[in-house]
Design a protein that fits this description.
Rossmann fold, two-stranded antiparallel ribbon, hydrolase, HAD_hydro_PyrdxlP_Pase-like, HAD_sf, metal-binding, Pase_PHOSPHO-typ
Length: 261
């Protein structure tokens, strides 16, 4: 059973852009999107924009093709595969949507490395239109967290993951993210966990201006190369006392050990 659970944000963490903005820009809906942004929640606006694109004759295949062009650093692909091969349980918690994330992960051959994708649900309806729905039904049952947008509190998701996983025994978490929405789940982490905020992005700024509420050890990263190096270093640190992991990890991560010394 995995000792280390690695939880990834998706936009600007696994991929190097925001998938919502990427699709909206690629399909020429930026002006409409910006016009409507002050009038409705982001997640509802994505659904509205997909309806508009469909009415303009844009197909689901064109949306998928644009997603496959979204930038994803090759060393993040390597990091995901190595973390998995070292026995980590990899999960995604993202405020994008399932269609976007699955399309990108399948395109890069990464989908099977993740045990769970927590994100806004989506479907392609009978007209071929992509529909995007909120993770929490905020009209009937608001989540009540004032740090998070109405459609998704990543902290509640982390709490659920932690409480279900910690029943299995001692586990340690590594959380990677960049955005404001990653602050709430970062506060859920314990003092044996790690948080990896992307340097100079909103999560990093929130953590360094409110460092007392973060119990986890903080390790920043800036790009795909650093993400790989820091993540593998932490996995080695977390499991170093566990003899069953030690041999295989020493072989594979020996190149990363000297970076903080
Ligand atoms: Mg993000
Ligand atoms: Zn929250």
């Amino acid at each position: 059973m995995a000792r280390v659970v690695v939880v990834f944000d998706f936009d600007k963490t696994i991929i190097d852009c925001d998938s919502d903005n990427w699709v909206v820009d690629e399909l020429g809906a930026t002006e409409l999107f910006n016009q409507l942004l002050p009038t409705m929640p982001w997640n509802s606006l994505m659904d509205r924009t997909m309806r508009e694109l469909h009415s303009q004759g844009k197909t689901i295949e064109e949306i998928a093709a644009s997603l496959k062009r979204a930038p994803l650093h090759s060393q993040i692909i390597t990091a995901i595969k190595l973390a998995y091969s070292l026995g980590c349980d990899l999960r995604i918690v993202s405020d994008a949507n399932l269609f976007f994330i699955e399309t990108i992960l399948k395109h890069h051959g990464l989908i099977d490395y993740f045990s769970e994708i927590n994100t806004n649900p989506s479907l392609v309806d009978e007209d071929g239109k992509l529909r995007i729905f909120p993770y929490h039904d905020f009209t009937c049952a608001p989540h009540g967290c004032d740090l998070c947008p109405p459609n998704m509190c990543k902290g509640i998701i982390m709490e659920r993951i932690r409480s279900s996983i910690l029943k299995e025994g001692k586990k340690q978490f590594i959380y990677l993210g960049d955005g404001n929405g990653d602050y709430c789940p970062s506060r859920q982490l314990g003092d044996e966990d790690y948080v990896m905020p992307r340097k100079n992005f909103p999560l990093w700024e929130l953590i360094f201006t409110n460092s007392l509420v973060i119990k986890a050890e903080v390790h920043e990263w800036s790009n795909g190369e650093e993400l790989e190096r820091v993540l593998l270093y932490l996995i080695k640190t977390v499991v170093i006392e566990d003899d069953t992991y030690l041999c295989s990890i020493d072989l594979q991560v020996s190149n990363y050990t000297n970076i903080f010394t």
